[in-house]
Amino acid sequence: MRAMTQQSSFTPRELLEEPGDFGTEPDVTWKYAANLDQAIRLSRAIDQHVQALGINRLLRRGHHSMTDLASVLGERAETLADKIRGRAPAPERDLVLWSWMTKTPRTHSPLSELVNLPTGVTTASLLPTLGVPARVTAKLRKEH
User: Fold this and answer.
1) Taking the CA of residue 65 as centre, how many other CA atoms within 13 Å lie in the half-sphere pointing to its CB?
2) What DSSP character marks residue 121?
3) Helix axes 36-62, 66-73, angle to 10 degrees
4) Total structural domains within the chain
């Protein structure tokens, strides 16, 4: 009996206007996020795309194949190809390794560049806050 594969949490390439450009075209257009969870996935997809560009460049320049790289990383070529093409999310371990291997820095765009919010709504409203520390609240209560 064949084992069922687990569905990934999201498909990074689907966040692109042109999904086939994932990992191959440096100048791409991303779909805006509507909320914080979507913005986090979008930021993650952008990071994976940038790292995939670096991996593809490394493979081209070194005249290596996906199979060569998969062998070095200890995974199946098909699995690696799915991550490089954005068909599956790459785990943090892969993103860090790819960054080190290609010397491609990891950066994240500001939240304001990822989310399309209604007029008058700021990205600050999306972020979790710690609120007022308990010691400040206690001091204010004592003073009143």
Assistant:
1) 6
2) -
3) 110
4) 1
